[in-house]
UniProtKB/TrEMBL annotation:
Residues 111-296 form the ATP-grasp domain. Pathway: Purine metabolism; IMP biosynthesis via de novo pathway; 5-amino-1-(5-phospho-D-ribosyl)imidazole-4-carboxylate from 5-amino-1-(5-phospho-D-ribosyl)imidazole (N5-CAIR route): step 1/2. It catalyses: 5-amino-1-(5-phospho-beta-D-ribosyl)imidazole + hydrogencarbonate + ATP = 5-carboxyamino-1-(5-phospho-D-ribosyl)imidazole + ADP + phosphate + 2 H(+). It comes from the Bacteria. The keyword Zinc does not apply. InterPro entries: ATP-grasp, ATP-grasp_carboxylate-amine, ATP_grasp_subdomain_1, PreATP-grasp_dom_sf, PurK, PurK_C, PurT/PurK_preATP-grasp, Rudment_hybrid_motif. This is N5-carboxyaminoimidazole ribonucleotide synthase.
Length: 392
């Protein structure tokens, strides 16, 4: 008889909801996780008992977390590149690796790579002063090259005065400013792929996402009425990028579908992504399990959808409104939400409600898109507190 090899422990940096949702398939796979959490009690630390509390910008802390772990992966993209190189030098497999990850950390580097690969981007230029923006042409979009998320670090500007905020923010953060053409888009798409170190890849159906103020609100899988050629093109772009940049794990490619029928790459994420949450209930292999398989170089699972349609709607804390006082319900929302829709799938992140904060999401799948939209939107609005008790 041969002794069974013990499962390796996978180190995960960052204690947000993405790490929390990796824990679910890790349990099923019998895979131990060790977490670096930014504070005691954060979303993933609630469900991963083997955690260290510390700062992901501190190399010694990273070494403590990865000690004895053959592989490290991430909940976010904020670990300094030099620390990732140091961990690699220690013999830890960093997945995705620093050479890939920099394309998700730095929008200037990402745009340059797309150009090199001949992949479609909005017209763009690194700019150092408002006069250069004027030369690039108004209206346009200014972005800080690093540190932006959920629409923070993105400004639509129409004149010289409008540029001040972006340059001030970039200077304060010690980063650069990227100018991009203001794309006239029909909608935003996302092409999600997974790639393993040995080069196996899998592509999920291309989805449509709705963003409000730069924050993802809703995802429909697959993107309704998407031209099959454009869909294949989006998937090919994502697969090509995953290969060319040597990505391991999930790569999410956010794209604009332009009004004249093209796709342009907006940005990249190299971790499970909000536009892939639908896969938890709507695909044969969720993006979280796929990410674990990919970073551990296990064979990938099927990315095929389980239903004709899946709709994901985020549960966001309602905006501050002193007249309404505290709004939103999480645990208290279950009796109505679950009784109204026995097929609804709810995912809460163990976070307190705060204005604008993503605290969970719901998935509804089925044969009828309108029905899925109604069910998922109703449930999210209910948890958010936008529907009164009379809707019970
Ligand atoms: P973040 O890092 O915050 O996700 P993004 O680069 O994705 O920043 O931009 C946030 C949102 O701003 C996008 O989802 C899109 O709605 C809008 N946006 C970004 N770039 C452009 C552009 N070049 N043209 C038009 N809208 C844009």
């Amino acid at each position: 008889m041969t002794a069974s090899t013990p499962a390796p422990t996978l180190a995960v940096v960052g204690g947000g909801q993405l790490a929390r949702m990796m824990a679910q398939p890790a349990i099923a796979l019998g895979l131990p996780l060790r977490l670096l959490a930014e504070a005691e009690g954060v979303s993933a630390a609630q469900v991963i008992p083997d955690h260290v509390v510390g700062d992901h910008r501190d190399l010694e802390t990273l070494r403590r977390v990865t000690a004895g772990c053959p592989v490290v992966t991430f909940d976010h993209e904020h670990v300094p590149t030099e620390h990732l190189h140091a961990l690699e030098a220690d013999g830890v497999a960093v997945r995705p690796g620093p050479r890939a990850l920099v394309h998700a950390q730095d929008k200037g580097v990402m745009r340059a790579a797309l150009e090199r690969l001949g992949l479609p981007s909005p017209r763009h230029r690194l700019v150092t002063a408002p006069e250069e923006v004027a030369d690039f042409g108004f209206p346009c979009v200014l972005k800080t090259t690093r540190g932006g998320y959920d629409g923070k670090g993105v400004w639509v500007v129409r004149d010289l005065d409008g540029c001040a905020e972006a340059f001030a923010a970039a200077e304060a953060a010690g980063v650069e400013v990227l100018a991009e053409e203001l794309v006239d888009f029909r909608r935003e798409l996302s092409a999600l792929v997974a790639r393993s170190p040995s080069g196996q890849a899998a592509a999920y159906p291309v989805v449509a996402s709705t963003q409000v103020d730069g924050i993802c609100h809703e995802v429909v899988a697959p993107a309704p009425d998407l031209d099959p050629d454009l869909s294949a093109r989006a998937q090919r772009i994502a697969l090509e990028l995953a290969g060319a940049l040597d990505v391991t794990g999930i790569l999410a490619v956010e794209l604009f579908e332009t009004t004249d029928g093209r796709v342009l790459v907006n940005e990249l994420a190299m971790r499970p992504h909000n536009t892939g949450h639908w896969t938890q209930d709507g695909a044969e292999t969720s993006q979280f399990e796929q990410h674990l398989r990919a970073v551990l170089d296990l064979p990938l699972g099927s990315p095929a959808p389980r239903a004709r349609w899946t709709v994901m709607v985020n549960i966001l804390g309602a905006p501050e409104d002193p007249e309404r006082g505290e709004v939103g319900r999480l645990w208290d929302g279950y009796p109505h939400a679950l009784a109204r829709d026995p097929r609804l799938r709810v995912h809460l992140y163990g976070k307190d409600l705060r204005p604008g904060r993503k605290v969970g999401h719901v998935n509804a799948y089925g044969d009828d898109l309108e029905d899925c939209l109604e069910r998922a939107r109703h449930a999210a609005a209910w948890f958010r507190g936008d529907l009164g008790d009379e809707s019970e």
